[in-house]
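Each lists chain and fold; for instance:
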Amino acid sequence: MDTVTPGQEALCQLDDIPDGEAIAVDAVLPDGEESLILLRRGGAVQAYLNICPHAGRRLDWAPGKFLLKNEILVCAAHGASFRSGDGECIAGPCRGEHLRAVAVRVENDEVKLG
């Protein structure tokens, strides 16, 4: 997927994210280009940097594929488990730490930064 900069085009269409699941997209943030995790619940989308606070690795087990069950996102590298709603690690090597949230909004069925 092409990289998206704040204020530009959409990261994806809302329908690109199956309800209750997650996808990865690339975006240019103030700190540079990053992979984001987009989690959808109905018409709402939550976004986090695709970086586990434990070892700085991506959470997906294959590009854009995440282990997500009962709104718990599991890091494929070391098994850290994060609540999708607030990004807090509730089990694993970085318990109590959080994924870094990224502000996104849904506008006209498009997911955009901000």
